[in-house]
Amino acid sequence: MTAVTAPGRQLSFDPSWRSFSSTQGGLVVGHLLAAAASLAGAPPRAVTAHLVGGVAPGVAAVVTATADRSGRTGSVRSELVQDGVLRAVAQTLTLAGPASPGIEHGAPAELPQVADGVPFELPRAYVPVAEHTEIRALGTSRPLAGGAEPRLHAWVRIRGVELEPLVQLGVLLDALPPSLFAVRTVPAAMPTVELTAHLAGPVPGAGAWVRVDQRTVWCDADVAIDDVELRAEDGSLLARGRQTRRLLGA
Description:
Number of domains: 1
Strand order of the largest sheet: 1-5-6-7-4-11-14-13-12-10-9-8
Radius of gyration: 17 Å
Low-confidence stretches: none
CATH superfamily: Acyl-CoA thioesterase, double hotdog domain
Largest sheet: 12 strands, antiparallel
Helix content: 10-25%
Structural class: mainly beta
Number of strands: 14
Shape: globular
CATH topology: Porin
Strand content: 35-45%
Distance between the termini: 47 Å
CATH class: Mainly Beta
Order of helices and strands: EEEHEEEEEEEHEEEE
Mean pLDDT: 93
CATH architecture: Beta Barrel
């Protein structure tokens, strides 16, 4: 079988999309996901991405996609290269046809509304990407509040900019700070180095509120594993994700 490769997408990320020192990982994954879906001509159902280097804002980058397998079940490898160096790579699973109505096992009993959230702004000195998100926090946990549980729960939507639907989904999967921030009182560098997501429903439209429930499920001296769940306003599941964060300054 001959692999099918799409022409490269030329990108340059505005500095306002920076999280700490590099472009937000979710935005990078979203572009890898969108490139894969565009090549396959089919909706993605799962993606695993490795962020092997920071993507600098304001520097030209190119995203390419190659179909390793085509057909009703497809597999597409996409890469982002900047300054001739591989910065991120993803493998995306696609299916020929939209997601069918699902049966969810163990769905949460709580169904908070957007109005239940408390407006909250992330510190733009550390995460300028906060300019592009509106957050309404749920529960008592807040970043850098020294809480008892490494969990962050909030309604989030993209504001002031319209993104491709899959790019927007990538941003939402990574919209909240590391969940360990909920038990800390000072920030530390915890960049995302791996992100895996399973898509369960229609991708939210531009500006839609999405409930993001994220918690650290395991960590050691080097990495922390965050699980994240995205739900629409009606409570339906949109996606589940898991990401590995490197603990560089913990």
